Amino acid sequence: MVKILDEVMKELPTDANISEALFEGSNIVLYTKNKEFLLDNKGVIKKIVDSIKKRVELRADPSMVLDLEDTKSFIEKLMPEEKGKLNIIFDTQRSRVIIESEKPGLAIGKGGDLLKEIKKETLWTPIVRRIPPMRSQLIENIRQVLYDFSDYRRKFLHKIGKRIYEGWTKERRDEWVRLTCLGSAREVGRSCFLLQTPESKVLLDCGFNVAAPRDSAFPYLDVPEFNIQELDAVILCHSHIDHCGALPFLYKMGFRGPTYATAPCRDITALMCLDLIEIAQKEGTDPPYTVNDVKEFVKHSVCLDYEEVSDITPDIRLTLYNAGHTLGSAIAHMHIGNGLHNFLYTSDFNYEMSNLLGPAATRYPRIESVMMESTYGTRSDTSPSRRESEEELIKVINETAEEKGKVLMPVLGVGRSQEIMLILERAMREGRIPEMPIYIQGMIWDVTAIHTAYPDFLSPRVKRDIFQKDHNPFLSTIFKKIVSQKEMQEVKDGKGPYIVMATSGMLQGGPALEYFKHFAENSKNTLIFTCYQGIGSVGRRIEEGERELSFISGGSKRPETIKVLMRIYTIKGFSGHSNFKQLVGWVGSLEPKPKKIITIHGDYSRCIELASVLYQQYRVETVAPKNLETIRLR
Fold first, then answer.
1. CB 313 within 8 A of CB 322
2. 474-490 burial by CB neighbour count: b if 16+ within 10 A, else e?
3. CB of 390 closer than 8 Å to CB of 420
4. Domain for residue 141, yes or no?
5. Cis peptide before 133 (omega within 30 of 0)
6. How far apart are CA 163 and CA 537, in angstroms?
7. Chain centre to alpha carbon of residue 390
8. Are 317 and 311 contacting, i.e. CB atoms less than 8 angstroms apart?
9. Which strands make up the sheet holding 27-32, listed edge to edge?
10. Residue 315: inside a domain
C-alpha cells in the first residue's frame, strides 16, 4: 500500500470502520461501513485534508446503500415539479448516483439541501450533471462509455493515484526539467511537446496537421527520448485538430495512461477526431486511427475544472486556466518538484473578451518560464477590433437583406461559428438586422449542442442571459438545422433573405461548397469569410480575386465552370487567437513576471520576431526553438 494511505488511516478513529481506501487519480476515497461516521465525521476528514494537503472523500461501502429502485423512487419524489427531464444512473462500484437534469440548480437545491437529503436517506453520494438543452448524441455516447466502463475506470484511477504517490516521500537529489519540441516549433500544426523530469514524462497536446502529407502530419513520436511505455500522462489544452488530432493514435499505439482536459474539451475532441476518421473514409484514404481508439481516449480521460489543482505525477502538479480560445480551452500551469520550477504552456489563447468566452487568464501563483503561441507574432499582424468587425458584418447583412439576397458564411465548426451565432442572434433580437432564418449545416450544430451543455465555461454576458434571464441564445428559433439533401435543396431553392452557416470554412468541400456553387452566379447574394483561408484553398482563390472556378462533381468527367458574381467580403476581427498587440500585452500583464519565454506555434518569422520584441520590451530571456530541439528549463 502506498504510504500516504497509511498516513491517512492512522488519523482515523478506530470506529470509522473503513472497508477500503482507494485513489481516484490524485484524490483519496475512503469507504466506510459506519453510517454515523459517513453522515457526520466531526471534522476528522477536514483535519486530514489540512494535514496532507490532498482531497479526501468519504463514501458509503457499497453493501450499505439503499436498493436501486427505492433510491430512484426517493430521488424522483424529492425533486421539485419544475425540474424538467431527469435521468438517474447508478455507479454501483463507487456508491455514486448520477442525477442528470435539465435544471441542475433545482436538482441540487438551495445550499445543496437536496443532495444532503439524498445522501442522508440513501447513503449514495449524489452527483448532478446537466442534460444539454440541445440534444447531443455525442455527449450521450461519451457518458454511456464512462458508465459502461465504471469498474474499469475505478481500477484505472486507482492506478493513477498509486503512480502519483509512489514517490510521495522520495528524496530527489538530481533535479532538472527538460522540454523537447515534437511539433509546432517554428510552424503551425501538430502541436506536441515532451516535458521530462527525472521522475516524469508528460506530453503537452498531440496534434495532427491535416494540410500536410501523411508522413509529416504527425508529431515526431519516433525520437529516442519518447517511449510510449514510459509516458505518464497527456495534457490536452484544446480541441482543434492541430492540437488534439493525433491523440487517439497514442491509444492505438498502446498508451493507457490519463489525458487531462476540461470536460467540454474532451467532448469536442472526440467529435473532431471522429470527424477526421469520417473525412478520411469519404476521401478513400486510411484513417490514422479507428473509432475504438477514440473510445479508449474517452475511457482514459480525466476532466478538471479551471483552477482545480491536481497532482498528475509524483513531481508535477497541474492547474488549468481559461485560455479564451475555444470552449474549455486551457492554459496549463505546471508546478514541478517541491518548488523547483513553475512552467506555463498557453497552447492557443485569446487575450480579449469575445461574445462567446472570457479573456485568457494572466494571474498565476508562480511562473519561471512560459511557452506561448506566436500565430500572429509580427507587427504586421493587426486586425480590426471585434466591435468594428461586428458593425461591418451587420452592415453587409443589411445590404444583402434589402435586395432579398442570400448570405453564405463558410465557417469553422468549433468556436468561430458559435461566436457568429451569438452576434447574429443578438442583432436580430435588438432589431439591428431584420429577422430571418439562419440555416446551420455540418458539424456546427453538434458543437453548438456541446456549448449548451457547459454554460459555466461561456462569457459572463452569456452566462448572465442563461442563468438570470432564462434566455439561451443558442436555442433561438432563428437557427434551423439542415440534415438531409432534401432539406438542403429546399434551402437552395428558397427565397431570400436568409443566412447559411456551413462547413468547411475554406470551401474545400462539405455543404458550404455546394451552397457556394448554387449562390455564386447571383449578384444579389453575398459570401462572407470570417476565418483564415489556407493557401491553395478555394476560399483563398476567391479572396485573391479569382472569379471563374471549375469543379468536377458527381460522376461527370467534364468540369463545371462557376462564374462568381456574388459579393465577396472578408471580416478578420473574429479570430480566436490573440493578435500581435494582444500577445505582447498579455505578457506585460502576467503576474508574476516570467524569467524565460519560449515562442512556438507560428511560422519561422513570427516565432523569431515575437521572441525578439518580448526580449527588447520586457528584458526577459527568450528563445524560438526548432522542432526536435530540447530546452533545459531548470
1. no
2. bebebbbebeeeeebee
3. no
4. no
5. no
6. 47
7. 25
8. yes
9. 18-24, 27-32, 56-60
10. yes
Bigger pLDDT: 170 vs 156: 156
Q: Are 241 and 341 members of one domain?
A: yes
Same domain, 237 and 253: yes
Q: What is the pTM of this model?
A: 0.94
3-class secondary-structure state, position 65: coil
Residue 188: closest CA among 300, 347, 408: 347
Domains identified in the chain, total number: 3
Contacts of 138 (CB under 8 A, 6+ apart): 267, 270, 271, 274, 446, 449, 450
Residue 375, SS3?
A: coil
Could you tell me where the beta strands, DSSP code E, fall in 33-103? 56-60, 86-91, 96-101
Whether 468 and 524 map to the same domain: the answer is yes
Q: Which range of residues forms the domain containing residue 96?
A: 68-131
Is 367 within 8 Å of 342 (Cβ atoms)? yes
Strand order from edge to edge, sheet including 259-261: 301-303, 259-261, 233-235, 201-204, 192-196, 178-183, 630-632
Sign of torsion, CA 307 309 315 316? negative
pLDDT at 626 over 90: yes
Strand partners, 56: 28
- Are residues 404 and 313 both part of a single domain? no
Q: Are residues 214 and 302 located together in one domain of the fold?
A: yes
| pLDDT, tens only, 564-619 | 999 999 998 888 899 999 999 999 999 999 999 999 999 999 999 999 999 999 99
State the sign of the Cα–Cα–Cα–Cα dihedral 442, 446, 452, 458.
negative
Q: How confident is the model at residue 343 (pLDDT cuts 50, 70, 90)?
A: very high
Question: CA–CA separation, 527 vs 516, rounded Å?
Answer: 8
Alpha-carbon span 162 to 594, nearest angstrom? 33
Cell representation of residue 447: 458543437
Angle between helices 510-519 and 485-493 (to 10 degrees): 30
- Nearest CA-CA partner of 343 in 160, 596, 603: 596
